[in-house]
Write a structure and sequence with these properties.
Blueprint: E1 2-5, E2 27-30, E3 37-46, E4 55-60, E5 72-76, E6 81-87, E7 90-98, E8 110-111, E9 115-119, E10 123-130
Length: 142
């Protein structure tokens, strides 16, 4: 019997397992236990108290402001909610980006300063606030 084992090593470091068409041998395939995932979820507001109804929340590997890269990212729904799934023990930067309701094409996206986060349990009631500059207002959701 041939034993084939995999670990949690990145795929780029694992040699391929070729079983071929020779089914005359028995194979005992060992897979690692499933990695534990955690949920990070909450609601996003602008600093004037209005819900963010269009935007993204992400957990990234750096403080760099970049909407597209990270461990996990998700869209903010019309009720201001978001939900992300990451591996237990993830360490990174929580970032949120929002568009004020009724924004016109070409207007800028608003964002919060990234916050350092370590995820060792589910976090289900985060409240994220995206600051507005003095005098800035958002359009209330109707």
């Amino acid at each position: 019997m041939e034993i084939i084992s995999w670990s949690h090593t990145p795929a780029s470091h694992c040699p391929p397992a070729t079983l071929g068409r020779d089914f005359s041998r028995d194979y005992d395939i060992h897979l690692p236990p499933r990695l534990v995932t955690r949920t990070v979820e909450g609601v996003v507001y602008f600093s004037d108290g209005q819900l963010v109804t269009d935007g993204y929340v992400s957990i990234k590997e750096s403080e760099e402001i970049n909407v597209m890269r990270g461990y996990a990212s998700g869209r903010i729904d019309r009720q201001g909610r978001f939900s992300l799934r990451v591996l237990d023990g993830t360490k990174g930067w929580l970032q949120a980006y929002g568009l004020p309701d009724g924004i016109r094409l070409g207007m800028r996206m608003l964002y919060m300063k990234p916050v350092k986060i370590e995820v060792f349990s589910d976090s289900k009631n985060l409240k994220i606030i995206i600051p507005l500059k003095d005098g800035e207002k958002t359009t209330p959701v109707k």
